[in-house]
Amino acid sequence: MKRSDRLIGMTHYVLEHPLTLISLPFFAERYDAAKSSISEDLTIMDKMLREEGLGFLESVSGAAGGVKYIPTIDSKESEAFINTLSQRLEDPERILPGGYLFMSDVLGEPDTVRMIGRLFASQFYSLNVDAIVTVATKGIPIAYAVASFLNVPVVIVRRDPKITEGSTVSINYVSGSSRKIQTMVLTKRSLKQGSTVCIIDDFMKAGGTIDGMKSLLKEFDAHVAGIGVLAEAEDEEDERVVDDYTSLLKISNVDVKNERITIDKGNYFSN
Amino acid sequence: MKRSDRLIGMTHYVLEHPLTLISLPFFAERYDAAKSSISEDLTIMDKMLREEGLGFLESVSGAAGGVKYIPTIDSKESEAFINTLSQRLEDPERILPGGYLFMSDVLGEPDTVRMIGRLFASQFYSLNVDAIVTVATKGIPIAYAVASFLNVPVVIVRRDPKITEGSTVSINYVSGSSRKIQTMVLTKRSLKQGSTVCIIDDFMKAGGTIDGMKSLLKEFDAHVAGIGVLAEAEDEEDERVVDDYTSLLKISNVDVKNERITIDKGNYFSN
């Protein structure tokens, strides 16, 4: 097989297996090629991925060595993406009664969601998390997008227990903005005790929901290594109960009467 | 730029843009190459994608021509995947009270969900759908996986209206298996009138939920071109209210007392 053919197959394989150790012998056998040729292929691939701003191949040396694809995104492309997204979301027609923002259409686009996932993966890949935790419903697509780049499972916290889940652990928490008592449940067998996790959600006001998730995760002895939200409501900063998080967007000055809203880049871009 | 470098970048681009028309001049400009070279690259890529069972490049001729990546999967690989999945799900420990099956862990794995999406995309790509419709919560990850391969948005039907959604259309329907009256809502602005859609869900018993979605979609003048479910409960066949659907798995003989369950391949594999 020619190098050009092999590189197409190898590129597909590498992209579909991020953060997974792939050994040279694996590719050598798959494409009936010498290990030295595969090694050269991977050098070419690493260079090209870097040039295109798509991440890089990390070499792992030793007998059980190989390469790992680290999916990152360069800052130019991530800023361009978030600027376009901000502009789309600033449309006054998106403002709903109560000062909420209609984002379901944007969160329904698989390529937009995938890019959001890529941004968070770029930030969190070094944390070696065991799972991504989110809460039903809106955070789910983003959580899967992050998880697909970090090669870990998604664990979904629910507001209500379901019969198809088996035994659960539940907690009550106080919603930060509405001050209402709410319940959250997580199926016992969905998360191993002592896991390192990353919390992902679409939106954070005062942070009560995320704080509730943290409490629930304590019951599983989980270590929350990172928190990522697509958008934070800046006006709620004073009351915020969660402080160490990454946001891609900051929503402020929601003015329902005059149909105005301000959307800025989140703290992801200021680090 | 060398062909080998270019092919890595082009492979990434093509894989991330399934069912999207990509023109030769686009790649020629992006990689500063002659159109004839790009054309050769695409011929190599098409051959390799077919060899690896990953789909093919469809040529679109004419002035506005180019190629479209059609993501399919060969039957050998899809059968191997579904056999492994069946074996995992047949584990008696998955049987829950009421005859339900615990599948959340499997549906939490991004690569498993992506493969499920690939199988459905392989079946539905020629239907030219405008959107994938699913119902919260468990169908959501599968719907996004299908949508990412078909390059269309996901529209989520909810059981309860949410304030962050705006005005909605709702219907009442009778759940096929429990015979209870339930409600479903869809935000008005989430789906254009007259769309062609594909319904995706994780599980179908008698089909009441999917039948309810069909009624709700009628209010949007939508045409349901395809229905895909990961698993169907075969024991409910007599009472089934939906007949034209594609299933990947068939669950039968759920015996809670003796902790036994039978899982077979769905009708996807008999067509």
TrEMBL record, chains A, B:
UniProt domain Phosphoribosyltransferase: residue ranges: 119-252
Subunit structure: Homodimer.
Domain of life: Bacteria
MF-aspect GO terms: DNA binding
InterPro entries: PRTase-like (IPR029057), PRTase_dom (IPR000836), Pur/Pyrimidine_PRTase (IPR050118), PuR_N (IPR015265), PurR_Bsub (IPR010078), WH-like_DNA-bd_sf (IPR036388), WH_DNA-bd_sf (IPR036390)
GO terms under biological process: negative regulation of DNA-templated transcription; negative regulation of purine nucleobase metabolic process
Signal peptide range in chain numbering: none
Source organism per UniProt: Pelagirhabdus alkalitolerans
Domain Bacterial purine repressor N-terminal: 2-71
Stated family: Belongs to the purine/pyrimidine phosphoribosyltransferase family. PurR subfamily.
Keywords: DNA-binding, Transcription, Transcription regulation
UniProt name for this protein: Purine operon repressor, PurR
